[in-house]
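This entry is listed below:
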Amino acid sequence: MASEQLRLAITLRYLATGDSFVSLMYLFKVSRQLISRIVPEVCYALISTLKEFIKLPNTKDEWMEVERGFNDLWNFPNCLGAIDGKHVVIQAPRNSGSDFFNYKSQFSIELFALVDAKYSFMYVDVGCKGRISDGGIFSNSTLYNKLRQEQLNLPPPCNLPGRNKPMPHVILANDAFALDINVMKPYAGKHNLGSKERVFNYCLSRARRIVENVFGIMSSVFRVLRKPMLLDNEKAQIITLTCVHLHNFLIKSRTSSTLYCPNGSFDNENLNTRETNPGSWRLDNTPMGNLYSLPQMSRRLRSDAKEIREEFANYFKSDIGMLSWQETVA
C-alpha cells in the first residue's frame, strides 16, 4: 500500500496537471488501478478536512461583512455576492443520452457558485447536467430556495448612501439569470455613453467579474479542470469539489495566498485610465469553459425588481454613487 505522503503527492499532481492515470503510473511507479482508488479517497479526505473553509454567512453581521467588502473594494453597496457557473468537461456517462451534452458540444457537469468580494467561494453546487442553463441551476438550488423562503438571515433593507428609499440586499448576476428582488442583472441591449443604464451595467460588471476571476484562477492552478475528466460523474464531482475547497484554503491562508495568487493574477484597473488590465489567467489560451450567456427567451420581470434596479441605476448616477472615472468608461 502506498504511503500517505505518496498518496497525497499523486492526488495533488493529478489536480495540478490533469495528467492521465497512465502517465501518473509511470511517474510514481504505482499501478493505474491503485491510482484510480487513491485519488478519490484522498479527495474525500481533503474535502472533509477543509469543509469549514466554505460556508454561507448565517448571521446578519456576517452578511454585512460581505457587503462591506463589495462596497469598499468595488463601490457596489447592498451587495452580498456574485453568482455564475462553469462547465467541467467529462467523458460521456453511460446511458445518459444527451443529458450531459452542453451547447459547446461537450459532455459536462456544472459548477455553480456564489463568491464574495475577496475571491472566496461561499456556496457551490456541483454535478448538474451540462444541458441545464446556469439560470436553471440557480432556480433549483438550495441557495435559491432559502432565498425565497427567507431562511438566509439576510440584513434588512436599508437606504443606499445619500438616498431615502430602503433597498434590499442583492446578488449580482449576468444576463443568463432572471432579474429578481434579490438578484440584479444588467439592462439588456446597447445604451448611450453616460446613460444611467450603461453606467449601471458598468458598475455591476465591474463587481461581478470577481466570480470570473475565481473560476479563472482555480482553473489555471488546478488544470484538471481544463481537461476532460475520464471519470464517472460522481468522481468528477469529488475532484471538482476538492479544487474548490483547496482554492478557498489557499486564498485565505496568509502564508500561501501570495504564492497561489501572485501580483497580476486577477483583473485590475489602470489607476490613470481606469481600463481593465486582464489577469494572468486570461492570457492562457486554453478555454476555461465559463457559462457565457446564450440568447435568452424574454421573461416577464416583476415590477418591484425593475424598480429596485432603477434605484440602483439612479444611485450610480448621483453625486454620491458616481465613480470619478465612470463618465470616461461608461
About this structure: Residues 196-221 form the longest helix (26 residues).
